[in-house]
Amino acid sequence: MRRSGLLRLAAILAALSLAPPPFASAALADTLIDNVDGFTLDREGQVQRLSGLLIGNDGRILQVLHRGDKRPARADYLLDGKGRVLMPGLVDAHAHVMALGFSALSLDLGPARTLAEAQARLAAYAAAHPDRPWIMGSGWDADAWGLSRALTAADLDAVVSDRPVWLVSADGHSGWANSAALVAAGIAGTGKDLPGGRIERVAGKPTGLLTEAAVDLVARAAPAPRPEDRDLAFSAAQDALLKQGVTAVTDVGTTIEDWQAYRRAGDLGTLRLRVLAYAAGTEAMALIGGPGPSPWLYADALRLNGVALPIDGMLATRGALLKTAYADAPGQTGLPRQPETALRNLMSRGAIDRFQILAVAHGDKALATAIAAFAELAQTYKGDRRWRIDGAEVVDPADLAKLPGNGIVGAIVPTALDPATAEKRLGPDRLTGVQPWAALGKAGPLALGSGAASGAGLKPWTAIAVATTRQPVDGQPYGGWQPQERLTREQALAAATAGAAWAAFADGHFGRLEVGQRADFLLLDRDPLLASPAELRDTRVLETWVGGRRVWAAPER
Question: Domain 99-221 carries which CATH code?
Answer without folding.
Answer: 3.10.310.70
